[in-house]
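Researcher: Structure prediction, please.
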Amino acid sequence: LVDSSLDFWLTAGPWAHRFETRFAEWLGVKYCSAVNSGSSANLLAFMALTSPLLGERRVKRGDEVITVACGFPTTVTPIIQYGAASNCAISILYWGMVTSTKTGTVGHIGTSSFYPPHHITMGEGGAVYTDDALLHKIVNSFRDWGRDCWCASGVDNTCKYRFSKQFGELPVGYDHKYVYSHFGYNLKVTDMQAAIGCAQLEKIDAITAARRRNFDTLKAGLTGLKGLILPEASKNSNPSWFGFLFSVEPDAGFTRNELSEYLENNRIQTRNLFAGNLLRHPAFDEMRKTGEGYRVVGKLETTDFVMNSTLWIGVYPGRTAEMLDYTIKTIKTFVNR
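Model: Predicted structure follows.
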């Protein structure tokens, strides 16, 4: 961060390019586009699929997109804001992911967030990645004001026809650097953010290992405790966990909120699973009245259970054995009471 500050390249520049290259290599994908937040990454990933450059394959307004109702708002809001219909389904579909394939790389396009509680951080930051050269070009266009030009900042005429072609109804020879092929945004990362990300990438393998180790410690310490439903990894997967997500059984004799309050009072922070049931939030009030903009499949009973009964505790890599032991003992004390 200090080196980047001294360079005083305040927008995306050499550090951003370095991060994109290194993160793509670590993921095992061809292309990565760094952005200013994980929410922006979600927005770009979806909007890329609406591009006219995709022809008949693109998502159009009114098309239905299958999502989950339980999660983080900005995984769904770009779909609704664009005018496609969100179909809130009961369950998540899983691939048989082998352990050598990293999360986010099994489809055409994936996203990451680098918010402080996440595996690596830029403070604020995110990334969109793909193996598809066309999707990568579209993502960068939407990210960089919607421009048609793909020259890096400070570079000119990579395409060799900067002043020689006609685009749309613009005059022949109109400067290609100022031709816009999408209704885009400005969602670039700053070089200072990217510099932090580069430093974090040097630690990422140790971070993922520590999160697995902390998860395993909590799982072993809480296994067999009555009233709790503990997390299980899906088949053929080896996740590095975001957190330790567990639930309170309906007949446990205590509620999720009572457990959370007890832990918080004993200096152990907790979180709900983000929005719980997205459809129950005030943002959906108007849409609920009209019945437009989304469709629900089933009764979302599992989603409501998560909303009412599920909580996170942390597996942050800096947690010591003493901290984890204290967490386990505190939960046991509450449950046994």
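Model: The CA atoms of residues 123 and 238 lie 26 Å apart.
Researcher: Thanks, that helps.
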